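Hi D.,

Good news: the full-assembly prediction came through. Inputs first.
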Amino acid sequence: MRATIAIMQRELLSMFCTPIGYVVIAGFLLILGVLVILTEGFEPGQPATLRNAFGLMPFILAFVVPAIAMRTLSEEYRNGTIEGMMTAPISDAQLVLGKFLGSAAFYAVMLATSLIYPILMQVYGSPDWGAVFSTYVGLMLIGLFFLAVSIFTSSFSSNQIIAWITASVLLASFAVGGFLLVRHVGGFWRQLIQRANVMGRFEEAALGLFTTGSLVCFGALAGLFLFLTIKVVESRRWR
Amino acid sequence: MIEVRNLCKHYGARKAVDDISFTVNDGEIVGFLGPNGAGKTTTIRILTCYHPATSGSARVAGFDVLSQSMQVRRNVGYLPETVPLYPEMRVREFLRFRGKLRGLSRADRESCIARVVERCWLREVVDRPISQLSKGYRQRVGLADALLHNPRVLILDEPTVGLDPTQIRETRSLIRELTRDHTVILSSHILPEVEATCGRIVIINRGRLVASGTPQELRSRRGDGAVHAEVRAPVEEALSAVRELANGAKVTAEAADGWTRLRVESTSDLREPIFRLSTQRGWTLRELRRDAGSLEDFFVRIVADAQLQAQQ
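Then the structure:
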């Protein structure tokens, strides 16, 4: 446990000790700012929401989240520090979990910077704080799942760019794919896609509807990818 | 302390380590010697639980590297060939992090860090970021990390590669000091280094163990030491007298401006008998010297022999 926390702390600290953390946050805020300007027209009499901009958030996250997690394992491979990790008395699961928690902590910090928009709304209007809260819970959950996928792609390659692009493509197609595929399939597959549709789940949350189904869905998906990551890291020993 | 039995490691069809067996006793310092690509790092990585062997077994500090991996890792301090450091961290931060990974409590951690900082001469750089450190300092930080939890076994892969001569000397003396409390394996492709620090040498080449023993043993096995003497004596007389002493070893003599140069090819030390002989006979003795035969020649020959065998 101590080791997992140590890895998490180191991961979080190194995001802020190197430019990468600041670049990711700046990029995130820039894209979000542009989206808010383009999609939201705040007019008197209209409800004070950011539903349009925040509804597109999963697409931003599909590119931003992999940038957070791309270095987690790739950099360890590239610098050879993985050798120090794998010969320390910690399990591969502890290593992966520590990396995941560290990235999740950074993600939470990054997400917190976007709270400036609800706060601005509070200054000029009266937003629905219940919906804001459930939107953020939804964003946190979707982020954890995206992080797990990104760490998974990071475990394959010592090249961060490859890890980033692979994860972005996977996540973007995951976010869009649900909509596109669901029209072309039927029966069991249709049901499966509807249930696992990340965007649908997120839209629910953005409306203030927060269900256990979403929690289980995101939790299970994140768990699955973390498990796969542990297996990939383990398998490197045998090569 | 370390017991390696019939260890093999294959990468696809290539045998990186091929049936190696050796043991290292408590408090010993053993040098792992071989040309680049001989299988040193692969063997070391098996011993440190970085990757498993294809077949064979290894026990370190009484634990099996495969089935009791965690216990082995807790008892081993390992300095890999490329020192695994996080450039963005400060030295103290890094050592604290490694201490936490090894489950040291806060109080233990600080006292352990103070100890290794002292031991590895890191006091001036302990609050500097690792990215700013020179190669020599980085190597020492890696060594400090390996020593941090006071392990029973230390495994050092090429500990002096890339250091300047002063640093090499310092590192060697540090390693020698460490044997008081630790069992040490170090690998190198540089022979004088192993000769200077190790009590025992294991030479491997192409994944196979080709020789092992103390530096003296290996030298005497080489069998081509020689004693040179230069006396003022008639060539024939000197030759026959020395032949008697030499016990069948090959003796050559040549005359040069009134002196006789003698060369006795023998591993035993004939200097004293030759000195006595010359005083007995009243010869003037101008030079008397012994070539022990360098280990370097031995190493080069062993490697060449193995190469030859492989070609056949």
